[in-house]
Each structure stands twice: as C-alpha cells, then as structure tokens.
Amino acid sequence: MSENNTAVEQMSGTSKTADSIGQKIAKLILSIMPWAIVGTLLWAGIFVKPTAVIEEVVPPVINVRDNVFGLSHVDSDVYMAAGNYGKIIISTDKGVTWKNQIAPTESHLQDITSWNETNSVAVGNNGVTLMTEDGGKTWIEVESPKSETANKLLRVHSYPNGEAWAVGEMGMILNSHDYGKTWNQMREEEDVFMNDIVRVDETTLFIAGEFGLIFKSTDNGKTWKDTQTDSPNSFTAVAFRSPQEGVVVGLGGAIVSTKDGGETWTYIKPEQSGMTEHLMDVDWSEETSQWVAVGNKGKWIKFSADLTQFDSRNMSSTDLTSHTELAIDGGSFLSVGQTVGSMDISTNTWTSFAD
Q1: Which of 290, 193, 213 is CA-nearest to residue 254?
Q2: Which of 326, 209, 184 is nearest to 262 (CA)?
Q3: Quick check: helix, strand or coil at residue 182?
Q4: C-alpha to C-alpha distance for 222 and 203, rounded to whole angstroms
Q5: % of the chain exceeding 70 in pLDDT
Q6: Are 66 and 81 spatial neighbours (Cβ–Cβ below 8 Å)?
Q7: CB 307 within 8 A of CB 293
Q8: Are the C-beta atoms of residues 280 and 236 closer than 8 Å to each other?
Q9: What is residue 59's predicted lDDT score, i.e. its pLDDT?
C-alpha cells in the first residue's frame, strides 16, 4: 500500500512540474507577442513599399449634361454630330458608339454637315465656323461674316461641288463654294431668325424663319421673297421631297405644306395633326413614304404626303427628352438632342444609344 502511495505522489509531482513548464512557455509567448507584432509592422513599414491601385474613370462620350444639337449622315454607317461647348463626335456603327474629336472652340455648336468622309463643316454660337479636310482629325476655325448685334448660326447644309449654306440670327444667310474655307453673306442683316435652309433645285432655295415667315430665292440666293403663312408660330425646319412638294415645321406643332413650289402654303392646325409640342426638324422617308418630324419632350410625328393621316407619339414610354435633328436612313432615323437613339419608323421601336 505504501509503495502505491509513493507512485501516486511521484506522478502528481511530475504533472505539477509539466503544468509549471507549460505556464512558463505560455507567459513567454504572451510577453514576446507584442514585440513580434511591433517588429513585423516596423519591418513592413521600412521594406514593403505600398503600390497605389488607381482605376481610371473614363467619362462617357455623351454624358447626361450634354446636348447634341446637330447631326450629319456622312456615308453608310458613319455619322458626325455637334453640340454644346464645342463637342464634335463621330460614329462608324450607325450611332451605337461614338468617339470624341477635338474642336478649337468652346462655343456651342448648333449644326454640322458633310460632303464625304473627309470634308465637313460645323457652325454655332458667336458665328463660329469650323471645317475639316481629314475626317475630323483636325478642325480649323475659319473667318465668316459677322453682325455687330448677334451671331448665332443655327443650321448648315452641304451640296455637291463644295457648296454649303448656313443661316442664323439677324437674318444671316451664308454661302460657301470651297468646302467651307470661305463664306459670303447673301442678304443684308435683319432682326429675324433664319432657322433652316434647303436647296431644292439648281436655282431655288427655301428658308424657314421666325414669325411664320418663309423665304424663297429663285436666283441662287441673290434675291429673296418673303412669304407670310397662316402659322401663328415661328418655323424651325424645312424639307422638300421634290421641287414642288415641301413641308415646314415649327413651334407649337406648326406644320405648313406646299404642293406648288412655295407659291401657296397650307397650314395644318395642331387639332388636326395631334401635335402641340415644338417640332425641331423634319424630313421625308422614301422607304415608308411619310414625312417624319422630331421635337420636344420626346415627341415625334409621321404623316402622309397628302397631309391627311397623322401619327403623333413619344419616342418611348421612358424617353421624354427633346430632340433637335434627325437623319433618315431607309426605314429608320437617327435622332439627336438631349439623348441619341434610333427609331424604326414602321414599328415605332426606339433604341437609345445614350451612355
């Protein structure tokens, strides 16, 4: 029995010794740990060099604050557009994606036109007139006639052999015959907005003006005849489908039409067309045999050549933005303004290209 007690006492002593050693080791580790942490941090601070990872934020080509006022269908899939603060952009995939071009101005550009993939002209506020001969890789500001009163140029259109016509404030009518390098003033200034111009044959031009006025020249712009229509509102755009048949649209849904080359004009009341919003541009769709116009608050309208059938609607249920210009290509059109997109004229399907 005594031998058994001795064995137990020896085992107990051994256990106490092991516990004491374990406690000492634990205390040692706990005492060393803060210094190890400090040492590790000190080593990292001295020898580990931090690398900053900065993700570049690329702004969208067309952001929510942009307004794209003018549009040019250059050729096939290529479009160019111009807008606020000297913005000029180009698309090579029918408007789905766009790239910025560098313009030598911060003035708002109101319109742009192109003869081909190399030659284009853009015009805008302060009478600014730009031209390019290399597809927009470089833009050059050129001199053009100015008024001492106001100088906003609103529309510009190009025609064969380097001809271009631009119109704007103070009755300004400008003409170029060298792809926009030089410009001539074609009428004495007058306190009236000239908002759009179109050539319909070799000698005849029409201008959509303020206060329901339409201006016609039959001698290549040397002289002009003013016609007061029944429209109570100003006009913004003019288009002809033949030398005899044309349409002018404007504020408050104004629509007037001629079938005799501008000798007489028929006013379509908003009650008849169903359109009361401002219309900003109009053109003829050969594919669908309809006139098409776009305007404010996402509104657009299509109507028959004889002006008996009108279909006024929104671009979509969600797009209530204003549109300033369109370019018809077959059975659809590209439209710019506060947003950019494409409309299928037959199915009324709107595809937004906004970033």
Answers
A1: 213
A2: 209
A3: coil
A4: 10
A5: 83
A6: no
A7: no
A8: yes
A9: 75
Whole-number Å distance between alpha carbons of 113 and 130: 11
Strand-pair partners of 312:
301
Q: Contact 108/347 with Cβ under 8 angstroms? A: no
**Cα 75 to Cα 115: distance, rounded to the nearest angstrom:** 9
Q: How high is the pLDDT of residue 355?
A: 58
Convert the pLDDT of each residue in 128-154 to its tens digit. Answer: 999 999 999 999 999 999 999 999 999
Q: Hunting for tokens 């657009």 — which residue is that?
A: 300
**What's the Cα-to-Cα distance from 219 to each of 110, 141, 204, 225, rounded to whole Å?**
27, 29, 6, 11
d(CA 197, CA 195): 7
Q: What is the sign of the dihedral through the CA atoms of 219, 224, 230 and 236?
A: positive
Number of Cβ atoms within 10 Å of the Cβ of 169: 21
Q: Mean pLDDT, to the nearest integer, of 173-184?
A: 98
Provide the residue count of the chain. Answer: 355
When the pLDDT of each residue in the chain is averaged and rounded to a whole number, the result is 90
Q: What is d(CA 178, CA 267) in angstroms, rounded to the nearest whole number?
A: 37
CA 94 vs CA 38, 158, 288, 294: distances in Å? 62, 20, 19, 18
- Beta-carbon contacts of residue 186 (< 8 Å; ≥ 6 apart): 173, 174, 175, 221, 222
pLDDT of residue 83: 97
Question: What pLDDT does residue 342 have?
Answer: 96
Q: So what's the pLDDT on residue 38? A: 55
pTM comes to 0.84
Residue 223 reports pLDDT greater than 90? yes
Element (H, E) at 293: strand 290-295
pLDDT above 80: residue 82: yes
* Rounded Cα gap, residues 158 and 135, in angstroms: 15
- CA distance linking residue 183 with residue 173, whole number of Å: 10
